[in-house]
UniProtKB/TrEMBL annotation, chains A, B:
Intracellular or extracellular location(s): Cytoplasm
Gene Ontology MF terms: tRNA (cytidine(56)-2'-O)-methyltransferase activity
Sequence positions that bind S-adenosyl-L-methionine: L84
Enzyme Commission code: 2.1.1.206
GO biological-process terms attached to the record: tRNA nucleoside ribose methylation
The protein's name in its UniProt record: tRNA (cytidine(56)-2'-O)-methyltransferase
Taxonomy of the source species: Archaea, Methanobacteriati, Methanobacteriota, Methanomada group, Methanobacteria
UniProt KW keywords: Cytoplasm, Methyltransferase, S-adenosyl-L-methionine, Transferase, tRNA processing
Length: 179, 179
């Protein structure tokens, strides 16, 4: 199952940090690519690419002016769409169904206002707890459920920086050969 | 097990949205209280209190000038401390141990730079995936692991707004008696 993420309605300055966290969360929890829509933010994309290349793997980031174009293309290629919204069905009930479906999954993460067309286009509208919190935490927990915890075993190939889990302090392998 | 969260080194403006998301994530995933340190941000605290009171429950938010004071008090009261850091031990290996320990848990969420004293004071330094992503996603996934998924069944008492999970559209019960 290939997982991509689509971030709606990015706004320059106001959303820079949240959208950066959405991108890095998508990558860390196993998505291979994120599409950004809304205002084009070249600096943010450069920063995410830079972090991703230092920590390894093949994460992609692409700007798309038309989020509905991304959704339609995904569906016409045979993929299915999960839209994360506080109002959707409970994540822990839906995630196993999505996983067993086996289709490639586009996870849509909202901005300030999400049009009804996104709710309609989604195969699943999914809520993480039905409480207000964050698109970052919703994405992380949904990806965690979808991966069934396998994100903890992901290997990111050819990293420059490789963090070695350690109880106290910091332990980072530096692979200069991957620079 | 009572869970509280301590957010280090909040900076006005720059961190407003991320810290707000940290607060709401803490609440949604079962923490009863968050302590904020760094720059005092009355507006942020008011906004979080307002959201929390509309969606129910008894979530508390308190500013503390001394994060180390909060940590020391927590430990002297018999609680234990989890510090979330990219460099720590893997979350899925540590969460069951923390849960079985049964102590009240203070989860410390870093800011831009975390002093060595926090690493030392922590009973567990814990990493969620060892990849860079977000304090918001780290907190959510660690709380999810700690709660063993029970956050999906939490009841927030006396809400004004109660979201009813629904496959398409929005379904919100409005309890005017709780205003």
């Amino acid at each position: 199952m290939n997982v991509n993420v689509l971030r709606l309605d990015h706004r320059l300055k106001r959303d820079t940090r949240i959208t950066t966290h959405v991108c890095l969360t998508a990558r860390a929890f196993g998505a291979s690519k994120i599409y950004l829509s809304g205002e084009r933010d070249a600096k943010l994309m450069e920063n995410v690419r830079d972090t991703a290349s230092r920590f390894g793997g093949n994460f992609e980031i692409e700007y798309s002016e038309s989020y509905m174009g991304v959704i339609k293309k995904w569906k016409s290629d045979g993929g299915k769409v999960v839209h994360l919204t506080m109002y959707g069905s409970q994540a822990h009930e839906i995630a196993p169904e999505v996983r067993e479906d086996g289709s490639d999954i586009l996870i849509v993460v909202g901005g300030s206002k999400v049009p009804g067309s996104v709710y309609k286009a989604a195969d699943w509208n999914v809520s993480v707890t039905t409480q207000p919190h964050s698109e970052v935490s919703s994405l992380a927990v949904f990806q965690h459920l979808l991966m069934n915890g396998k994100e903890f075993d992901l290997k990111f190939e050819n990293p420059v920086l490789e963090v070695i889990p350690t109880a106290h302090g910091k332990n980072v392998n530096i692979h200069n050969e991957n620079r």
